[in-house]
Every structure is written in structure tokens, then in C-alpha cells.
Sequence to fold (482 residues):
Amino acid sequence: MSDINQAGSAEEHQAPGALVEWEQRVAGYGGEPPFVEEPEYGSPIVLALKDAAIAAGIAAALFLFFIGFRTDINLGGLELTTRWQAFGISIVAVFVGRLAFRMLFWGSRQKGGRSLATRAIESRKGTPLSEHFARHSGKVGAFALAAAIVYPIVILWAFPLKDKQFIDLGILVLTYIMLGWGLNIVVGLAGLLDLGYVAFYAVGAYSFALFAQYFDVGFWFALPVAGLLAACWGIILGFPVLRLRGDYLAIVTLAFGEIIRIVLLNWYTFTGGPDGISGIPDPTFFGLAFARGDDNLPGLLGLKYDSAYKQAYFFYIILLLAMITNFVTMRLRKLPLGRAWEALREDEIACRSLGINTTNTKLTAFAIGAMFGGFAGSFFATRQGFISPESFTFMESALILAIVVLGGLGSQMGVVIASIVMIGGFELFRDLAEYRMLIFGLLMVIIMVWRPRGLIATRDPSAILKQRQSISADMVAQGEGH
Fold:
């Protein structure tokens, strides 16, 4: 106690500016190196041009062998061709893009200068994008659901020649929306980085395919079984990684996904190995199949058989499964389990200090997220009619994780928007096969620069105090606040 009094008296006898100088020095060494940014002097345009020229030079060195030269296989061997026009266009694009980025977002650092985008954002009045969606989430969700319900009907009526293609694209988007919502439980709500989510997708697909092959069961019977088996594998994955966090957890989940794929690939006598499993039955409608014949559903309804109707039926099945996933997730977020997930995401040590069982919390997150992945995998098997280990590679996990991150961790609507943009964007650039991944990566970089926390970033807890209320003095004495 005497030491504290002596330290307090020493601070009182310090020079007037000594304490302030010491605080400034501590604040300066509090960040990542370099602790204090060196100001850039000179004309903002000159600095931007210099920076853009450096970026263009680096791009030229990288693109020389990727774009400038190309090798093709001919009868006599490899043939080397050059593409200097595409090489020059790519360098000019990098220069212009870097210059625009520097002028709009960085601005001048001289004498407290601000970029044009910064001044525009500061002058803009209103609430952030995430708050707008949170405020009108009910209306936006109802509109999105109504649009999804009428989507196959509009496609069948307006695009009779391309109806199957567009409906199949909608099925693919809804499948990734469901997978994104399932992974959002693990990554967005519980804060556990999972790079092997495709393993549960594969477990669900192979569960239905193997049940149909060996026991001759239908889709609706095997669907809950596939989800339960995937949930069991989620618990099996959860036990070894209970003490891991961050990068270590990501590495273990990545290894788990590869283990599942390699087992499916090498267990030839049971899973078919690289040959896969074919002849997976289609889902029925109360025992009636979508097939030709008077005894099947189109014949009983007096309709001419059209495979587009079958595609529409698949669309409504995955829409129903996706809405169940969304409903269960939103209900769980408001329960004590969902609040425990959010507490675990924010601070695991504080979560443990509050008496929350972090072991059960992590296991439930892995199990429930894996269950929805299993449901999606079972639907994937019946939609494709054929599955193989090549459909469940690491790139699928990376794509699903990118949808969750770009949409916004914890945001259901963000996953929907990101799935539409990313999966639909792949189809838009299908004709540009050589530059497809390049454009895709560029769009991802732009989104992460523009919205680093995702399109709709929301980390607000599900249970919050809407307004401050006065409390009694005895509660204040126990540590409560106003």
C-alpha cells in the first residue's frame, strides 16, 4: 500500500508534460510495426502515378509467363505462342485500377488529406448497410422467398427453350445457400474456422447413395439418416479439436476433409472408388415418380411429360430444405445455445469464465452445421444421379467458406447475396474460360477492400438490451451499470 502511495506522489511531482509524453510514447508503440507511418510528401497525383507504375511493373513480371506466352499440345509436341495484346491489356488494366484505387481510397497523406471516397462516406448521412438490412430483414426475406417461389413458374413461361438451364442454375444457387447457412453456424456464429466442411457434404451424399444401392430405400427415408450420420461425423471431428483455435483448427479440419475424400476414393469395394456410384433414385411425390407413363405423376395429372417439370420439383425440394435450415438457425440464435455460440466467438476465455461449457458448445456447433451439410449432400446425390469423390474436393470447402466470409459472418441474407453473386457470376463468365478465375479473384479482392467484414457485416449479439433502464442501488453495488 505504501508503494502505491509513493508511486502516486511521484506522479504528482512530475513535470506537467511528462505524463502526457509518456502516454503518447506508449500509444505510439502499441500497434504493429511500423508503429508510426511516415508521411508522404509531394503531389497526390505524382504519388498515385508512381504507385500505379510500380504495380504495373510487378504485374508485367507476373503475367509474362501466365498471359504473354502460351503452350498448346499438338501432334509434333508442344507449340509456343505469344499473346502480347492480352498481356498489354492486363498491364494497362492493373495500372488504371491501381491508380483509381489510390486516388479514391487512399488520397493524400500530406497534412491530413483525405481521399475522395473517405470524404464521400463521411458526408453521407444515414445508417450502415447492415443496419438497413437488420431493420428491414423481415420485408427483404419475405420478398426473397416470394421471388424464389415464383422463379420456376416465370422461367417455364418466359424461357421455354432454356427453362431447364435456368432452373438448374437456381437449384445450384439454393444448394450453396443451404451449405453457406450450415457453415455459418460453425464459422459465423461459433467463430470456429472450418476448412473441411465439404466432408459432411460428402458423408450425406454417400449415405443416401449407399442406402439406395444396398437397401433400396428412397430419398425421403434416407434424408434424415444422412443428416444424422453427418452430425455424428461432426461430433467425431469436434472431439480432437476442442483445444484448438485459429490456424491450428483450420489445418485439422482441412486434413479431416481430405481424409474423408481419400477414404471414399480408395475404399473401392464399398464406395466404388473413383468410379463412383450411379443409378441413384429420384425423389418421389407421395410415392409417385416424375417419369413417363400413365401410372406416374404427370400421367395422373393429365400433363405431357417434360423434364423441366422434374427440375422445378427439385427446385422446390432444395428451397424447402434451405428454408428449414434458415428457420432452425434463426431460432437457435435466440436460444441460450445460440447466445453461447456468440459468446464463444467473441472470447472463449470469457465464455469459460461465465460458466459456459465450451466443450458442448463447440460440439453442438459442429454437429448442427454438419447435419445441414449432410442434408444438402443427400439432395446433391439425388439431383445428380451419380456421385464420385471428385465432387468433394477442397475447392468446394473454399468456395462455401468464401460465400460465408464475403456475405458477412453471421449474416443469413449476406450468404444469400454472396451465393447469387458468386455462383451466378461463374455462369456469366463461362464464355471467358481463360479469364474466369482471374475475374473471380479480382471481384473478391474488390469486395474485401470495399467491405472488409463482408457485404452485410453483423456481429451484434442476438440478445441485446433495447433501451437503458434505471436499476436499484443494490444492483449497482453488485457491479451492474445504468
The chain has 21 helices and four strands.
